């Protein structure tokens, strides 16, 4: 994915993760990749990925369990 660094990056990452969720890359109940893994994949900081994950959680797509990670809801 080519990120446009002239605008905020986290919404771009969130949009791509949303697209991947919609495509069925991760199934409901499955553990979602961690922020370290996703940050390396996208070439961004963990805080950028964390903002994207928070957005997906607020949309009801992910559930985060403290100390256990995030899980796909839909």
Q: Topology, pairings included?
A:
Elements: H1 10-22, H2 35-42, H3 46-58, E1 62-65, E2 69-72
Antiparallel strand pairs: 1-2
Helix pairs in contact: 1-3, 2-3
Structural class: mainly alpha
Q: How many β-strand runs?
A: 2
CATH topology: Arc Repressor Mutant, subunit A
Q: In the CATH classification, which architecture applies?
A: Orthogonal Bundle
Numbering strands along the chain, what is their spatial order in the largest sheet?
A: 1-2
How many helix segments?
3
Percent range of helical residues: 40-55%
User: What is the domain total for the residues?
Assistant: 1
- Biggest beta sheet attributes: 2 strands, antiparallel
CATH fourth-tier homologous superfamily? Winged helix-like DNA-binding domain superfamily/Winged helix DNA-binding domain
Shape: globular
Poorly predicted segments = none
CATH class: Mainly Alpha
N- to C-terminal distance: 23 Å
Mean pLDDT: 96
Question: What's the helix-strand series?
Answer: HHHEE
Beta strand % = 5-15%
User: What is the gyration radius calculated from CA atoms?
Assistant: 12 Å
Outline the structure in words.
The chain is mainly α and 74 residues long. The chain has one domain: Winged helix-like DNA-binding domain superfamily/Winged helix DNA-binding domain (Arc Repressor Mutant, subunit A). Helices cover 46% and strands 11% of the residues. The chain has a two-stranded antiparallel sheet. Strand 1 and strand 2 (69-72) form a beta hairpin. It is globular and about 35 Å long. The two termini are 23 Å apart. Residues 7-74 form the HTH gntR-type domain. Keywords: DNA-binding, Transcription, Transcription regulation. This is HTH gntR-type domain-containing protein. It comes from Streptomyces marokkonensis.
């Amino acid at each position: 994915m080519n990120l446009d660094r002239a605008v905020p990056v986290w919404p771009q990452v969130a949009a791509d993760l949303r697209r991947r969720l919609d495509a069925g890359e991760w199934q409901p109940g499955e553990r979602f990749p961690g922020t370290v893994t996703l940050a390396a994949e996208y070439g961004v900081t963990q805080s950028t990925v964390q903002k994207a994950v928070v957005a997906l959680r607020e949309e009801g797509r992910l559930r985060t369990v403290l100390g256990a990670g995030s899980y796909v809801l839909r």
